[in-house]
C-alpha cells in the first residue's frame, strides 16, 4: 500500500472511530442510526469500520441522526 493510500485509509478509519465514539456516548445502536439515515445496517457498519469513503451529504445525515454538528464528526485526534 502506498503512503498516500495508507493516509487515506487512516483518515477513513479515524472518521469511523469518531462517529462510533459519539454514537456509543449517546447510547444509540448501529441499527437505530442506520434506520434514521435510511441506510442498511451493513452500509452504516462499513462507515464506522472506515471501509467506505462517504460524501458530505452522508456525513450530514449521520450528524443529524446523532444530533451533533457535522464538525464534531470530522475533528481530528491530536
Features:
mainly alpha; globular; 434 Repressor (Amino-terminal Domain); 78 residues
Give an overview of the whole structure.
By secondary structure, the protein is mainly α. It contains 5 helices and no strands.
Question: What is the 3D form?
Answer: globular
Average pLDDT, all residues: 94
Number of strands: 0
CATH level 4 superfamily: lambda repressor-like DNA-binding domains
* CATH class annotation: Mainly Alpha
In DSSP terms (H or I, runs of 4 or more residues), the helix count works out at 5
Distance linking N and C termini? 24 Å
- Unreliably modeled segments: none
Helix and strand composition category: mainly alpha
Report the β-strand fraction as a percent range.
under 5%
Range of helix content: over 70%
Overall tally of domains:
1
What gyration radius follows from the Cα positions, in whole Å? Answer: 12 Å
Largest sheet: none
Q: H/E element string?
A: HHHHH
Using the coordinates shown, work out and report the CATH topology.
434 Repressor (Amino-terminal Domain)
Identify the CATH architecture: Orthogonal Bundle
Helix/strand layout:
Elements lengths: L2 H23 L4 H8 L3 H8 L7 H11 L3 H5 L4
Helix pairs in contact: 2-3
In short:
The protein is mainly α.
Amino acid at each position: 500500500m502506498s503512503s498516500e493510500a495508507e493516509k487515506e485509509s487512516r483518515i477513513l478509519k479515524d472518521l469511523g472511530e469518531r462517529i462510533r465514539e459519539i454514537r456509543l456516548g449517546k447510547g444509540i445502536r448501529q441499527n437505530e442510526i442506520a434506520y434514521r439515515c435510511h441506510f442498511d445496517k451493513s452500509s452504516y457498519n462499513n462507515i464506522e469500520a472506515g471501509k467506505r469513503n462517504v460524501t458530505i451529504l452522508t456525513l450530514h445525515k449521520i450528524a443529524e441522526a446523532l444530533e451533533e454538528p457535522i464538525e464534531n464528526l470530522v475533528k481530528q485526534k491530536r
